[in-house]
Amino acid sequence: xxxxxxxxxxxxxxxxxxxxxxxxxxxxxxxxxxxxxxxxxxxxxxxxxxxxxxxxxxxxxxxxxxxxxxxxxxxxxxxxxxxxxxxxxxxxxxxxxxxxxxxxxxxxxxxxxxxxxxxxxxxxxxxxxxxxxxxxxxxxxxxxxxxxxxxxxxxxxxxxxxxxxxxxxxxxxxxxxxxxxxxxxxxxxxxxxxxxxxxxxxxxxxxxxxxxxxxxxxxxxxxxxxxxxxxxxxxxxxxxxxxxxxxxxxxxxxxxxxxxxxxxxxxxxxxxxxxxxxxxxxxxxxxxxxxxxxxxxxxxxxxxxxxxxxxxxxxxxxxxxxxxxxxxxxxxxxxxxxxxxxxxxxxxxxxxxxxxxxxxxxxxxxxxxxxxxxxxxxxxxx
Length: 382
Description:
- By secondary structure, the chain is of the alpha/beta class.
- 24% of the residues lie in helices and 29% in strands.
- The protein folds into two domains: 5-58 and 332-374, Roll (Urease, subunit C, domain 1); 60-319, Metal-dependent hydrolases (TIM Barrel).
């Protein structure tokens, strides 16, 4: 029998929210794309056939908030070491680089990585590099150049998905929070791009911050435990947060331990405030939750399996304007997939405040498909 496919995943349960599909299917890949979904595909038709019975198959996972400007500062890891081992085939660097250093991120990281990478350009020209400024990146607004930031975004449409601004007391102080938001709004309006706004430790009321955002903009770290978070003093979701959601502003989990509070998140989710996207704010596996970890956490908090998969696939792709390209196992779609196991047991995830989320199930990565073949390349960090 002639070889038709490069790779065949046999016997798994496919969960593809882009097609409202949850069913046992074989999935075949050829020439870097999804070739066939069918109840049964003969294994001899594929160059490599893998039996994954009892496992889940999803489109390649997407992390819309990480930091991957490897070597720009010590705490950031390489995207291939953080993403591909965990089923993440597409990731977004969330503002590590501003316009002055973006060419280095583009040429030495984005273009060289096996992981498909996009980026939010930071409002600050230097991006996130406190080692060089020894203070918050927006404490000095001379580091903001609206014209050059807009030009960087417009000149790099293949890689840039928007603008990042951190409204954090350590980044702006109180006095520069509103001026930074005004400049961010100006850049976004001039370029037509979306804003990702960091809101953890915001020194101004969250409602005031949200007034600068528009439909399609993203609030990240929505479940932080600091003052001015999504909950009011009575533990209720603030009306202005519900209003933002109704206006089409997207809520991103951004589950860095320092910017995520288990108790705040549980209270918000119990009131029906679910995140649109599930991301990590990570860079190194030894220091961060992985995307399957974050999915597991929200599964334990009451989201369905289909919802957590959507938050890391098609909803994530839509949030960065790539729904037509990514996060689907439709025939002809990009040949990226994650094979996951749903394990039973006693698991725990903690936050920086010492709160613990206990889970009876967790998702773990079994294998990753990138460009239609099984990813197994040794990670060599330059």
